[in-house]
Amino acid sequence: MNYICYRKLHPEESKAYRAIRLESLEQFPESFCANYHEALKIEKFQLETDIEEQTFGKFVLGAYADDVLIGICTFVKSDKNSGTIYQMYVKKEFQGKNIGQGLIEAVIHEAGRQFNDIEILLEVAPGNDKAYNLYRKTGFLEIENTSAQNINKVIMMKYTPQKN
């Protein structure tokens, strides 16, 4: 097994982010609310700019195997006390090795470090049992989906930090 480390992407890694993001859309189109062919037409993703500029309140955490980016998970702060996880993806050949769990835990830790006691939301597609079970295992609980447009299309989940 390769040595795996988790960290925020550096400004010069925006192109590596783009490559793995496109791969995620191509490999698992049903899991993301984006289309691979449409994404290919976009000259530069907003998150590429956010990575390059290290935009406050947004970060992409990467899983690295021997310095090669093999997974991503994006966090975006929504309001005063909450944020959302997007774009959770681990390359196929590295799935089933607890790397996704490591990524989620690292995002929870980093978000908590930057924004004390922040609640974290995410959406998971119905039928994506692997992702759903991973999120449950890392402390996310299913909550009522109050979004009228996505009421039957996604399952909403929330992580609330434990008070000491």
Topology record:
Elements: E1 4-8, H1 14-27, H2 36-40, H3 46-53, E2 58-65, E3 68-79, E4 82-90, H4 99-114, E5 119-124, H5 129-137, E6 141-143, E7 155-159
Parallel strand pairs: 4-5
Antiparallel strand pairs: 1-2, 2-3, 3-4, 5-7, 6-7
Helix pairs in contact: 1-3
Biggest sheet strand order reads 1-2-3-4-5-7-6
Binned, the helix content reads 25-40%
Rounded mean pLDDT is 89
Judged by helices, strands and strand pairing, the structural class is: alpha+beta
**Roughly how many Å apart are the termini?**
35 Å
- Unreliable stretches: none
Overall geometry comes to globular
Characterise this structure.
By secondary structure, the chain is of the alpha+beta class. The protein contains 5 helices and 7 strands. Helix 1 runs antiparallel to helix 3. It starts with a strand and ends in a 5-residue tail after the last strand.
